[in-house]
C-alpha cells in the first residue's frame, strides 16, 4: 500500500492520500502529521457523500472540494472504499486522475486486504471519553481571540515571520496549522517573547522533518533566545 501512496504523491502538488474503507479503523495514509487525527473522520463524511451520490444515481467518478489553500479530491474505489487525496490548488488534476485511474485495480486489492485485516495501517485515534465538566477557572480558554493575537497583538510582526518560515517548510496548509498551534500555545500562558522558543518547538513537531526544521529555526533565529 505504501508504494501506491508514494506513486500518487509523486504527482506534483500532491500533499498525500488516505485510503478510506468503511468500517475499517486502520488508517492507511501518507498525509502530513497534522492530518493524522482527522483523516478517519473525513473518510466517514465521505461515506455519507458517496451514499447521497448513489441515491441520486449520478455515479460521479471524482468528487472535489476546493479551499483557498488546498483541494481535496475523492475517488470512489468501490461501494465502501474511497481514495482521498489532499493537494495544493495548482495540482494537475488530469495527471492525478490518470495516475489514480491506472492504480484503480491495485487500490481495490488494497481495500480488500484492509477489510480482511491483511494490511497494517496506523490505528485511528480512539474516541476519547467525554471530558469532565470544566472547573471555574477554565473559561480562560474561551477568552482567546486568536485572530487578534496573530494580527493585532504586540507580536504580530513576529508571527508573520514565523508564518512565512513555517509555510516554506510545510506548504500551503501552513497558515491553518500555524493558527491552531498558536492558539494551543496561547492557552498555556502569556503570549510574550519569553515563550517564543516554546512556540518554535511546537511548530517543529508539526514539521516533523529534521532538515526542514533546521531551515525553519534558522529563518526565525532572530526571534529566539
Itemize the secondary structure elements and their pairings.
Blueprint: H1 2-9, E1 14-21, E2 26-29, H2 39-55, E3 63-66, E4 71-78, E5 81-87, H3 93-102, H4 104-115, E6 122-123, H5 146-151, H6 156-170, H7 174-186, H8 196-207, H9 210-219
Antiparallel strand pairs: 1-2, 1-5, 2-6, 3-4, 4-5
Helix pairs in contact: 6-9, 7-8, 8-9
Task: Describe the protein's architecture and organization.
It is a single chain. This protein has 225 residues and is α+β, with helices and mostly antiparallel strands. It has 2 domains: 122 residues, Dynein light chain 2a, cytoplasmic (Beta-Lactamase); 86 residues, no CATH class. Helices cover 46% and strands 15% of the residues. It has 9 helices and 6 strands; from the N terminus they run αββαβββααβααααα. A 6-stranded antiparallel β-sheet has the order 3-4-5-1-2-6, with helices on both faces. The chain is elongated. The termini are far apart.
Largest sheet, described in full? 6 strands, antiparallel
Number of helices: 9
Distance between the termini: 44 Å
Oligomer: single chain
pLDDT < 50 stretches: 133-142
Q: What's the CATH H-level superfamily name of the largest domain? A: Dynein light chain 2a, cytoplasmic
Tertiary shape: elongated
What is the fold named in CATH at topology level of the largest domain?
Beta-Lactamase
Helix share of residues? 40-55%
Please tell me the total number of domains.
2
Rg over alpha carbons: 20 Å
- Judged by helices, strands and strand pairing, the structural class is alpha+beta
* Record field, number of beta strands: 6
Task: Write down the CATH class of the largest domain.
Answer: Alpha Beta
What proportion of the residues form beta strands (DSSP E)?
5-15%
Could you state the order of secondary-structure elements as H and E?
A: HEEHEEEHHEHHHHH
**Main sheet: which strands, in order across?**
3-4-5-1-2-6
CATH architecture of the largest domain: 2-Layer Sandwich
Amino acid at each position: 500500500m505504501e508504494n501506491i501512496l508514494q506513486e500518487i504523491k509523486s504527482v506534483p502538488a500532491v500533499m498525500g492520500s488516505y485510503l478510506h474503507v468503511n468500517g475499517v479503523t486502520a488508517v492507511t495514509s501518507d498525509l502530513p502529521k497534522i492530518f493524522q487525527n482527522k483523516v478517519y473522520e473525513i473518510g466517514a463524511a465521505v461515506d455519507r457523500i458517496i451514499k447521497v451520490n448513489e441515491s441520486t444515481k449520478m455515479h460521479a467518478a471524482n468528487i472535489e472540494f476546493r479551499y483557498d489553500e488546498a483541494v481535496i479530491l475523492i475517488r470512489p474505489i468501490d461501494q465502501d472504499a474511497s481514495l482521498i487525496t489532499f493537494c495544493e490548488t495548482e495540482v494537475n488534476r488530469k495527471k492525478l486522475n490518470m495516475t489514480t485511474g491506472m492504480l484503480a485495480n491495485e487500490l481495490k486489492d488494497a481495500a480488500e486486504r484492509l477489510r480482511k485485516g491483511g494490511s497494517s495501517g496506523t490505528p485511528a485515534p480512539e474516541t476519547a471519553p467525554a471530558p469532565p465538566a470544566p472547573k471555574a477557572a477554565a473559561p480562560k480558554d474561551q477568552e482567546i481571540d486568536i485572530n487578534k493575537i496573530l494580527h493585532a497583538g504586540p507580536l504580530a510582526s513576529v508571527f508573520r515571520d514565523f508564518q512565512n518560515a513555517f509555510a516554506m517548510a510545510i506548504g500551503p496548509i501552513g497558515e491553518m496549522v500555524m493558527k491552531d498551534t498558536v492558539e494551543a500555545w496561547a492557552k498555556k500562558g502569556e503570549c510574550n517573547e519569553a515563550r517564543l522558543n516554546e512556540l518554535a518547538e511546537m511548530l517543529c513537531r508539526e514539521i516533523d522533518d529534521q532538515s526542514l526544521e533546521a531551515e525553519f529555526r534558522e529563518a526565525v533565529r532572530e526571534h529566539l533566545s
